[in-house]
Design brief:
globular
């Protein structure tokens, strides 16, 4: 009996964690085996992330976004955890990061921004409310882009924060957020009148796992040599990333409880607090001037690797401790 497209999609979704780990391993192997591929893969980072976010946004009907914003308790818990608690935790762990400007910029870039892509997948695997988290994605993106320059100024001071060019932030917002979001909403609108667009909108979810795997392959493959070149620097922050992941998982579960959020919502808030937006902020790190870009980029990619492994553990642990 031939394997259908639906069968293949279902298989990928059932084994998506293994697919993501395989993509990371394949990207690392390819980057090491073909060093000249690094610059080519680096140019593919933004387009692949934009495609992933387009598909992500396509699964959020405009009406559902309005309903999510009106879910005051869940949204309040999500925003407090990500934009109040996270900066406080970052301020507590930042002294553990070596006093190297580029390294600290990379750590701050990645830890201060909540994830908007594979957090939905991992939260869903752990029984979290992925639908509400997905609907809150545009709000999380807008707020982190607005607040990140403020946070960087607070943590780094005006002089060092000024080294982080605002141009890439604007470019990232337009290319990675505004355009995919506008295209997704246009597709949804056209789907009411066009059967072809309707089929595209309905079937877009099947592309999530392959696109996520593509992004991980491209990111790791393009940056593996930078990790090798700055191994000592990035190794020094591995413990910081692990500590952050553990602390924010616990705080996310605890802090969301007083907001009256149910078990599935608490799991989603915990995953959102612990998971960072490394894939979206990587282009910002790579746009930093001079040698800062390589070190900051390595710090961001290192966080990605630690986080994906951590997510595999949390998918097994969180359902057991939140029954």
């Amino acid at each position: 009996m031939p394997i259908t497209f639906d069968d293949l999609t279902a298989t990928l979704e059932r084994h998506q964690v293994a697919v993501y780990l395989a993509a990371i391993a394949a990207g690392a192997a390819f980057g090491i085996a073909v060093p000249a591929s690094g610059p080519v893969l680096e140019h593919a980072i933004n387009p692949s992330i934009a495609a992933l976010l387009y598909v992500t946004f396509l699964q959020v009907p405009v009406a559902r976004i309005g309903a999510a914003v009106r879910d005051v308790r869940f949204i309040a818990a999500l925003l407090v955890v990500n934009f109040v608690v996270v900066p406080l935790v970052v301020s507590a762990v930042l002294p553990l990061v070596p006093d190297e400007a580029a390294l600290r910029v990379g750590v701050l870039l990645v830890l201060l921004c909540p994830c908007v892509d594979y957090v939905i997948v991992f939260s869903g695997l752990a029984g979290g409310d992925g639908h509400r988290l997905l609907a809150a994605t545009p709000l999380l993106l807008l707020l982190q882009m607005a607040l990140l320059p403020v946070y960087l100024t607070i943590f780094l001071g005006d002089e060092l924060a000024a080294a982080v060019d605002a141009g890439p932030f604007v470019t990232a917002f337009v290319v990675l957020i505004a355009i995919p979001l506008a295209l997704a909403w246009a597709t949804q609108s056209g789907a009411r009148r066009s059967a072809r667009l309707g089929s595209l909108s309905t079937g877009a979810g099947s592309a999530m796992v392959p696109l996520m795997a593509l992004v991980l392959f491209v990111v790791v493959g393009s940056q593996i040599h930078a990790l090798d070149d700055h191994g000592r620097s990035v190794t020094s922050v591995v413990g910081v990333y692990v500590l952050f992941l553990i602390v924010m998982t616990v705080l996310g579960l605890l802090i969301s409880r007083p907001f009256g959020v149910g078990v599935t919502g608490r799991r989603a808030v915990a995953f959102s607090g612990a998971t960072r937006n490394s894939l979206v902020v990587l282009p910002l790190a790579l746009a930093l001037p001079g040698e800062m870009s390589a070190i900051a980029g390595s710090a961001v990619v290192t966080q990605t690797l630690i986080e994906v492994l951590g997510m595999v553990v949390l998918v097994a642990v969180i359902p057991r401790i939140t029954r």
